[in-house]
Amino acid sequence: MTGLETEEILSAIVFYLLSGVVVGSSILVITLRNIFRSALFLLLAFFATAGLFITLDAEFIAAVQVLIYVGAIGVLILFAIMLTRRIQDPVAKSTTRSFILGAFVSAAFLFFLILILGKIYLPPFPETGADTEGITKGIGRMLLTYYLLPFEVVSVLLVGALIGAVVIARKEEARGGEPPEVALERERKDREITDSKPDGNGLEQNDRKH
Amino acid sequence: MIAGWINSCYESIRNWWVACGIPLVWLDIIRAILLGIVLAIIVVVAVLILTYVERKVAGHFQSRMGPMRVGWHGLLQPIADAIKLIQKEDIVPEKADYWVFTLAPFVVFVPVMMVLVVIPFGDHLIVQDLNIGILYIFAVSGIGVVAILMGGWASNNKWSLLGAMRSVSQMVSYELPLILSVLGVVILAGTMSMGGIVEAQRKMWFIVYQPLGFIIYLFAATAEVNRVPFDLPEAEQEIVAGYNTEYSGMKFAMFYLAEYANMFIVSMIGATLFLGGWQGPLLPSPVWFLIKTGAMVFILLWFRWTFPRFRVDQLMDFGWKVLLPFAFINLLVTALVVII
Question: Do B164 and A60 make contact, defined as CB atoms within 8 angstroms?
Answer without folding.
Answer: no
